[in-house]
Amino acid sequence: MQRTFFYINGAGNSEVPERELIQLDKAGYTVALNRVAVDTVAPYVAAAERPALTRLLGRIAPEDEVVVLQLSALGCNARDVLSTLLNCRKGKIGVRCVELGGVDLAGRPEPQAVKMLRAVVRMEAATRSERSRNGLKAARSNGRPTGRPASLSAPDRARVMSSLGSGLSVSEVARRFGTSRQTVLRIRAAAGAPGFK
User: What is the distance between the alpha carbons of residues 141 and 84, in angstroms, rounded to a whole number?
Assistant: First the structure.
C-alpha cells in the first residue's frame, strides 16, 4: 500500500510548522504527523546536506511518495532539484509539489515541469561556461595570469631544479619542498630539463 510522506523546509524554529500543515490540508492531503519531516536550513543548502530530507528519502520504500509545498524544498538550485527528482525516480519514489499542481515529478512520462527544469539546467551550464571563457579571454588580453597560482616561488623553483640536478629523485625533492611529485615534474618540464625518474 502506498504511503504519503511530507517534507517541509524553512518553517522557522517550530517543530510543528502549523502554517505549512494548514497549506497541505487545504491542498487536499491528510497529514499524519509521524510522516512529516521538517528541516530549518537555509534555502542555499544542498538537498544532500538537509538532514531531515536525507533521512526521509533513506527510509521511504519504493512506490511511496513525498509531498512538498514548493519546488525549492527539493534543492538549492535547478540542478540540485533535478538531481533530487532523478534520485527519487531511480528509487521509484513519487514526488508531488503543491506549487506545481500536485503532478508526480519523478514519474514517467516526464512531466513538463521537469523538462523545463532540464532546459534551465542546460541554459545555466551554457551561460556559466560562456562567462568563464569570456573572463579568461579578458584576463589574457589584459596580461593578467590565468589558472592556479604557482605553489612554489621562483627561488624555490630554482632550488628544485638544483636539487634535481644534484641527483635527488623527484619524490625526494617533492618531500623536501612540501609539494607534489606532479609539481616537481611540471617545474622540470618547464625548465626543459632532460627526463629522469
Answer: 41
Q: Are residues 92 and 35 in the same domain?
A: yes
pTM of structure: 0.67
Long-range pairs for 181-188: beta carbons < 8 A, 24 or more residues apart: 183/151, 183/152, 184/160, 187/152, 187/157, 187/160, 187/161, 188/160, 188/161, 188/164
Whether the Cβ atoms of residue 64 and residue 5 lie closer than 8 Å to each other: yes
> What is the number of alpha carbons within 13 Å of residue 175 lying toward its C-beta?
5
Structural domain including 64 reads 4-115
Report the CATH number at residue 48: 3.40.50.1390
Structural domains counted in the chain? 2
pLDDT tens, position by position, for the chain (197 residues)? 889 999 999 755 556 688 899 999 999 999 999 999 999 988 899 999 999 999 999 999 999 999 999 999 999 999 999 999 999 999 999 999 999 998 999 988 999 999 999 999 999 999 988 998 898 888 888 888 777 777 888 898 899 999 998 989 999 999 988 899 999 998 998 887 554 44
